[in-house]
Amino acid sequence: MSAKGKTIKLGVAAVAIAAMIIAATYFVTPAILTNTQTTGVSQSYTSNTSQGTQASSSQVASSPTYLVLLTDPPQVPAGTEQLNLTYSGVSLQLTAPNGSSRWVSVSVSGTVDLVSLGNWTQTIASTKVPAGSQVVAISLDISGIQAEVNGTVQAVTPISKEVTFPVGQPAGANQNLTGAILDLVPSLAQTEVVNASSGATADSFVFVPSGVAIGSSNLNQSQAHIGDRAKLSAGDAGKLDSAQSQAASSISATSEQLSVSGNKTTFSVTLKNSGSSNATIFGLLLSGQLNMSMTLPIPCNPLVPVCPKSMPSIVHPGVIPFRINGTSLQPLLGFEGQQATGNVSSITIAAGQSVTLSFSGVIGVQVSSLAGGHAPASPSIALAPVAGQSYTIRLMGVGFLTFQVTAS
User: Fold this and answer.
1) 107-126 burial string, b = 16+ CB within 10 Å, else e?
2) Can you list the positions of beta strands (E) in 15-56?
3) 43 φ, ψ (degrees, to nearest 5)
4) Domain for residue 385, yes or no?
5) Domain count, the chain
6) Residue 306: pLDDT above 60?
7) Which of 22, 79, 108, 350 is paired with 381 by a 20 to 30 Å CA distance?
8) Residue 3 is assigned to a structural domain of this protein
9) Is there a domain that residue 1 lies in?
10) Which domain, by its residues, includes 192?
11) Is 2 inside a domain boundary?
């Protein structure tokens, strides 16, 4: 596992005459993470036993047991006590000795506090697999995420409800206990909007996953049951570091463009996979100086019930998460007026291939909680880059990549 250190916070507050909009992001970066003290873990299984129910199409008593372990060392916003990820299923892609391949579903669910897993592993699935087979990929179904910040539970919008990771250096199922370790390295983007004229506030959190998975035969019976926790071994930590480096080195950005006209943003990035295997991207984050404007609906008269009133624009650091649909980028801020459409946000780039991801339009949301006591409709909020400013693009997927672009 990488050295740990403080999280980078990209957001600060800015004050306008009648409205204040605050945006912040918290990047969980493998190179700058710190150890997290172990805390209690809440487990809630859909099961008929205390350990949960798990089943696959190949559960033979003599078959080896295969475990899926999760590790995650996040730094989170100040005051965050828990970051609870609830999963509703795990799938394994098996390769047989004869080269045939199939997916096997493991019926299991639970909730894991990611804050408690710095340099620890927790077993999240267990099943039997055919002797001699290899697990070459793992898919995790995310059914919900919650963050507890300063004693208040906050709903978190996952940018994708299903994430799939190839298993590097897969361990063959030739002994009684083998498995894979999934190292999640997520970014948590937080946006807070405040209507200073009414005092109303609204917060949103978006969870953008990244990570790698490795095979491991360095497992024992103390990790054999769902919910078991153990220290991450030095050997597996080194393998995870190597997998992160390899994944990051295979993807490059060959061109990027960012322009703005009024509130309209045009954004594209071309990615090339120069590695020898597929590369998967789940989403990306665009961070830098953002121009934020609010249009507040106010009552006029019986004949014209709504009169849009523009608030002064403000410019300050912020972040915009983008999910992926085909080759289209879709901004996702996580407020009630802009939830994710579809369960999966990802694109897979074959070895040696390139792909261009793009967005063009207004990045805007409506937040009903900011309407105030007399406003008949939700305020509209628009975000846009500032021409001449430099922006950081962070790709999140199997590994991650960070690069710069200047807006025109």
Assistant:
1) bbbbbbbbbbbbbbbbbbbb
2) 20-27
3) -115, 130
4) yes
5) 1
6) no
7) 79
8) no
9) no
10) 8-406
11) no
